[in-house]
Design brief:
Radius of gyration: 31 Å
Distance between the termini: 73 Å
Number of strands: 16
Number of helices: 15
Shape: elongated
Strand content: 15-25%
Bound molecules: zinc ion
Structural class: alpha+beta
């Protein structure tokens, strides 16, 4: 049996979150929430004689993505017509880019397994317009909605550098995360604003030949991307092992059977009769424009993770969780900027606040606890006004009532007791009430230390300073030896 490896490239289409469409002033609307054909005009309906005008913001969003993916942005850009007929394309051509795309030669680093960093090439990033949307009815008819017609679309094509379904999944997930960080796409696959299509072939492991590939379309989640890629790799291996040949084709995904199926034999690029778009002048992008866009790029997740680990001593796991979504990273950084100790903030945020948010179904921008409010809570712990356990219950109260940590601690009398006389009295009481355990301790069962600490903490309703309790329990028990 030959051992194969996958040769996988991903073609990603991302709608850009601009206010208006790529070549007209129509609003970009939510395809699910807006009624059909409400955001249309003669330009995006393909009426004769209408002329497109390029959306500058869409170009800048595309430049953001190109720069974040380490691409070279080309100064001379040409739009091209991709000609084909379909009812969702009223002009019978799509304005796209072909020979002179916006950007080429980039890369994205992924870490499919711990410590194994792989650099995946990004072949090209180009701008185009989206098509309308067809809905097929039960009685065999079709409905068309042109709200989406002319919405700015970015095509991001990777090199076939991915070798497994796992790597394809990790690459797609990371690309989605970056698009969200850049505020150019919501990453919502279910709504179709982000579409991922793998092209897949296999080769004997260790060789570098490129074989006939198949393309899988209409995958509306990353889970399905993973399953479909895995299925396709296995299917092709079976075909080759049985002496068959791979056919270049487009395949779909059958969710019920969990398998891909042949849709149509794939057309080549020359079938589209690309030619330069005569209605749009060449687009010139100078260095000053590129540098202006670059200066506005946010710090990206990899850089944040490195900074959280190196500068603030966080674990890799925590750093990754905090940097996963920009809103979380910004909340966390606001708390640190307000004087919070990074590790203490990270702990309460990831372990306690996130749990409360999950239970209530709220997101960080909906809750009543502010970054400054959480910092105030950690300061009470630092000043030994309350201990860590009390802090957790105070946080629950803050979350539920919106009150400040100080208010809750004062109202409920939660301030910690560090007064050694009071604690010493409780320690002596615990020793008097548990003679059997005292005897076992004296016989060498050191673990019983914890038992006495627990007794004292309970007697003091959790408010005793644990450091002082430990010290006094040890001192009093040892005095009996
Ligand atoms: Zn329009």
């Amino acid at each position: 049996m030959t051992e194969y490896e996958g040769v996988i490239g991903l073609e990603v289409h991302a709608e850009l979150l601009t206010e208006s469409k790529m070549f007209c002033g129509c609003r970009v609307v939510d395809s699910v929430e807006e009624d059909p054909n409400r955001a249309v005009c003669p330009v995006c309906l393909g009426m004769p004689g209408m002329l497109p005008v390029l959306n500058r913001r869409a170009v800048e969003y595309a430049m953001r993505v190109a720069l974040a993916l380490n691409c070279t942005i080309h100064p001379h850009n040409i739009f091209a017509r991709k000609n084909y007929f379909y009812p969702d394309l009223p002009k019978a051509y799509q304005i796209s880019q072909y020979e002179l795309p916006l950007a080429t030669g980039g890369w994205l680093e992924i870490e499919p397994e711990l410590g194994v960093v792989r650099r995946i090439g990004v072949r090209r990033v180009h701008m185009e317009e989206d098509t309308g949307k067809l809905t097929h009815t039960e009685n065999g008819g079709s409905l068309v909605d042109y709200n989406r017609s002319g919405v700015p679309l970015l095509e991001i094509v990777s090199e076939p550098d991915l070798h497994s379904a796992e790597e394809a999944y990790v690459y797609a997930t990371k690309l989605r995360q970056i698009l969200r960080y850049l505020d150019v796409n919501s990453g919502d696959l279910e709504k179709g604003v982000l579409r991922v299509e793998p092209n897949i072939s296999i080769r004997p492991k260790g060789t570098d030949q490129l074989n006939t590939r198949t393309e899988v379309k209409n995958l509306n989640s990353f889970r399905i991307l993973f399953l479909a890629t895995e299925y396709e790799l296995e299917r092709q291996a079976n075909v080759l092992d049985n002496g068959g040949e791979i056919v270049q084709e487009t395949r779909g995904w059958n969710e019920a059977d969990k398998r891909t199926f042949s849709q149509r034999i794939k057309e080549d690029a020359h079938d589209y009769r690309y030619f330069p778009e005569p209605d749009l002048p060449p687009l010139h992008i100078d260095d000053a424009w590129i540098e202006r866009v670059r200066a506005e790029l946010p710090e990206l997740p990899d850089a944040k993770i490195a900074r959280y680990r190196n500068d603030w001593g966080l674990s890799r796991y925590d750093a990754e969780l905090l940097a996963d979504e920009k809103v979380t990273a910004e909340w966390f950084e606001a708390a640190v900027a307000a004087g919070g100790e990074p590790k203490a903030i990270a702990n309460l945020l990831l372990n306690n606040l996130f749990k409360l948010m999950n239970e209530s179904g709220q997101s960080l921008d909906e809750i009543d606890v502010s970054p400054e409010g959480l910092v105030a809570l950690t300061e009470l712990v630092e000043q030994q006004t309350i201990n860590n356990n009390i802090a957790k219950s105070v946080l629950v109260e803050m979350f539920e009532t919106g009150d400040s940590a100080e208010t809750i601690v004062r109202a409920k009398g939660l301030a910690q007791v560090s007064d050694s006389d009071a604690i010493l009295a409780a320690v002596q009481a615990a020793i008097d009430q548990n003679p059997a355990q005292v005897q076992q301790y004296l016989d060498g069962k050191d673990k019983l230390m914890g038992f006495f600490v627990g007794q004292v903490m309970r007697a003091m309703k959790g408010k005793a300073n644990p450091g002082v309790v430990n010290q006094l329990v040890e001192q009093e028990l040892d005095a009996l030896k």
